[in-house]
Amino acid sequence: MKKIISIIICLALCLTFAAACAGEKPPADDNKGNTPADNNPPADNNPPEDNKDDTNTPPDDGSSKGVVKIGVFVPLTGDRAYQGERTKAAAELAVQDWKDTHGLCGGYEVELAIYDDKNSPEEAASIAEILVSDEDVMGAMGSQSSSTTMSATPVFQEYGLVCLSNTSSHTDYTKTGNYIFRNNCINAQEAEASIEMVQKIIGPKTVGIFYSMNDWGVNVYNYMTEVIPKTGMTIGAAEPVADNTDDFGTTIANFRAAGCEVIFVAATPDISSPFINQYRALDSEVQFSGFINSYDEQLITLTGKNCEGMLVPATWFNWSELDQRQYDFTKEYYDYYGEEPTSLAVQAYDCVGMMLDAIDHVGKDRAAIRDYIESIEYDGVQCVLTFNETRDASKTFAWAKVENGKFVQVDRSQYE
Amino acid sequence: MLLQYIANGIAIGMAYAIVALGYSIVFGILRLLNFSHAAVYAFSANMILVFMGWHFGIWGAVAVSIVATGLLAVCVNQFALKPLRKKNSDKVANLITTVGASYIIQNLMVMYLGSERKTFPFFYDFGVSIDIGFYTITSAQISMFVIAGLLLVFLTLIIRKTKVGLAMRGIEQNPLAANLMGINVEWIIAIAFFMGGASAAVGGALIGGYYQLAYPSMGVMVGNKAFASAVLGGLGVLHGAAIGGLIVGVLECLIIGYLGASYRDGIAFVLLIITLIIKPAGLFGKKNITKV
After folding, report:
1. Strand, coil or helix: what is A76?
2. Which of A58, A155, B13, B71 has its CA 20 to 30 Å from the CA of residue A164?
3. For residue A402, how far is the Cα from the chain centroid?
4. Which stretches within A38-175 are classed as H helix?
5. Could you tell me if B143 and B125 are in contact, meaning their C-beta atoms sit under 8 angstroms apart?
6. How far is it, in rounded angstroms, from Cα B185 to Cα B183?
């Protein structure tokens, strides 16, 4: 009898959990639509199954010469999975768009080879070994953080496979070698953009720096401590934050005691949002400024009215009234996935587009693809992309501000 | 600033204390470190959001989540630990099983609910705060302190003043003798797990609301610090867990305030190591505790 009761209780709990999971997601996710990724086999360390959808491929006159693959290594499990899913989604959309408009790529069927690196440097290095040993893989994109990607880049460089990162911002990332490219701004660029924006729009005397204790956050912090004093502003306090930190009471007390008028928030929205919420509960006057990873719907979802007025430099602007191409891509992405793209997702889309463009022009030749990308002038959705001598893509920054629960573009000319 | 740091420390310390209670309840009866407790705590906060999505309302969702989380803890016991007890398995096997259960629960949440952080309603804030210059004590901090204190008193009363509590204490002393006295040992153990799970759910609601966040891995760091708190106060002693939580919380805030946030996570574990070296039974623990 006891066994039956315990089994019934367990079944009831399992059913509740399963029904909860299968049914409605928590309120924060209400606006998410189904993504094509839902229909794909789960990515793991084994080579992915063929996930092409022939029904969506327009008929081609010429027959395929075989398969060409783009490797994508991102976290699909763990704390950073949601960020990896966005890169994966953007990559899949780029391939789908290519198939819809071009069909084959240089005579080859295009596939993505998607791997879950769990945001682990060790995993990323292992995946890099798998990718370079697959003769069909002609380029790689990943991962979610500079430190993870930089553990894989020596492998790509040694075996001569282009690695084009949509997220790495560490200054040393491209120094690994000439096969390593970046379609993201570097730490110094975004720090400079954020400082300029705050100085011109707000002009505070004392600022605070809240930064993640990772490569990116520490680099941004180091750069800001050098530059801010030269601008006439004073750094009142600087407080680091580790991942999985939720309590900021004492950190906020330190900022307030130092009289900080503006806080530079160098952390991803999942980390910065509880800080902003807790700060706003105590202080309605303080203003926040972010970096390009703050240009993310998640920031507004998690902080609501608390991030009103927050300034963010952005390399991309959703629903831009000033750029029809950006508006169109936002609409396409939103229609496909039910959410707006982040800057990093847009960069992922352009990364895959550049590699496909290279393959289309030079064929299945890794060295020729590298040479082509080095001198590319690619008309991406973000902007016309070219690479400088350190293989960093050219970037320009728009100024964005949170107003009435959404990002609006600030007219820079008012402050020049 | 000292007052502000202490006030913040008491608030965060109460959060650790609530979670630490669950470790202590189970340890008190089984002499087992239940490392699945942190994941159970995270489950509760995430399930509150799910139930809110079903239009239960915040208070309804909290109530249902308390029951569901209690049942989850019972399931961990029934399906993972009870079979091991029946086979008289080594305590280490039990310990590792709870670690495994923790990963299973957390990864199931990531798979089905997503890994991203979700907004949690700040449902017990009354918008009142006491400001003295830069020193601010919010109503949420006071609420958390009061609710956690009431939970501690409630659980202590159950253990000290009820027959179930008497049975728990009997099993703690000698399970075989308790069984011979007519106590249904497995049933009492299941109740202890339910109480641990339910208290974790109260913690999930309070802490989720205080930080306005819920996510699958939210139990990792809080769980570790709560465990350190429970050891500091004396495993198996409820008021010890509460006081241990307060000490860890206040010291953590003092460390952040005077040495910087880089050292904040270290203090709980430094205390854990010092306690194990100097006073292994903890501040209020009994000397004859068998270590795992």
Report:
1. coil
2. A58
3. 19
4. 81-102, 121-133, 146-159
5. yes
6. 6
Q: Which residues of B touch A277 (CB under 8 A)?
A: 122, 211-212
Tell which residue, A8, A13, A19, A20, has the closest CA to residue B72: A13
How far is the C-alpha of A6 from the C-alpha of B53, rounded, in Å?
Answer: 28
- Residue A92 tokens, joined: 């899949």
What ipTM was predicted for this assembly?
0.79
Q: Which of A69-73, B64-68, B196-200, B231-235 has the least mean pLDDT?
A: B231-235
Question: What's the confidence (pLDDT) of residue B288?
Answer: 58
Please tell me the distance in Å from A179's CA to the nearest CA on chain B.
33
Q: State the DSSP code for A139.
A: E
- Whether the CB of B266 is below 8 Å from some CB of chain A: the reply is no
Place of tokens 């979610």: A144
Q: Give mean pLDDT in consecutive 10-residue pieces for chain A, a chain of 416 residues.
A: 58 53 39 35 38 42 84 88 89 94 92 93 94 95 89 95 91 92 87 93 95 88 93 94 85 91 94 91 92 89 92 87 85 90 91 95 95 93 89 87 91 81
Position B83 confidence tier, pLDDT thresholds 50, 70, 90: very high
And the tokens for A309? Answer: 């007025």
SS3 A318: coil
Q: Quick one: pLDDT at residue A123?
A: 93
Cα A131 from Cα B110, distance rounded (Å): 27
Give Rg (Cα) of chain A.
22
Helix (H) / strand (E) containing B10: helix B2-30
Q: With CB atoms and an 8 Å threshold, state whether B8 touches A250.
A: yes
Q: Hey, what are B257's tokens? A: 């305030």
Q: Do A257 and B52 touch (CB under 8 A)?
A: no
CA distance A71 to A142: 8
Residues 6+ apart with CB under 8 A from A170: A146, A147, A150, A186, A187, A215, A216, A219
CA distance A245 to A239: 13
Both tokens assigned to B256? 């952040």
Q: What is the mean predicted confidence (pLDDT) over B184-201?
A: 94
Picking from B50, B79, B129 by the largest number of A CB atoms within 10 A of its own CB, the best residue to mutate is B50
Give me the pLDDT at residue A43, please: 39
Q: Give chain B's mean pLDDT.
A: 88
| Rounded CA separation B262/B256 (Å) | 8
* Distance (Å) from the alpha carbon of B113 to chain A's nearest alpha carbon: 6
Q: Which residues on chain A are in Cβ contact (under 8 Å) with B49?
A: 26-28
Q: Does residue B263 register a pLDDT over 90?
A: no
Question: A30 or B99, which is more confident?
Answer: B99
In order, the DSSP letters of B124-163 are: T--S-EEEETTEEEEHHHHHHHHHHHHHHHHHHHHHHHSH
A57 touches chain B (CB under 8 A): no
- Among A203-207, B29-33, B157-161, B185-189, whose mean pLDDT is lowest? B29-33
Residue B244 has pLDDT above 50, yes or no: yes
Query: Between B15, B79, B214, which is nearest A10 by CB?
Result: B79
Per-residue model confidence (pLDDT) at position B133: 64
Residues A343 and A295 sit within 8 Å (Cβ to Cβ): yes
Average pLDDT (B27-51) is: 92
pLDDT of residue A66: 92
Q: Which domains does chain A have, with CATH numbers?
A: 67-185+323-385 (3.40.50.2300), 188-314+399-415 (3.40.50.2300)
Helix axes B219-233, B2-30, angle to 10 degrees: 80
Residue listed under structure tokens 């497995």: B186
Sole residue written with tokens 């891995």? B217
Q: Does B50 touch chain A (CB under 8 A)?
A: yes
Distance CA A184, CA A201 (A): 25
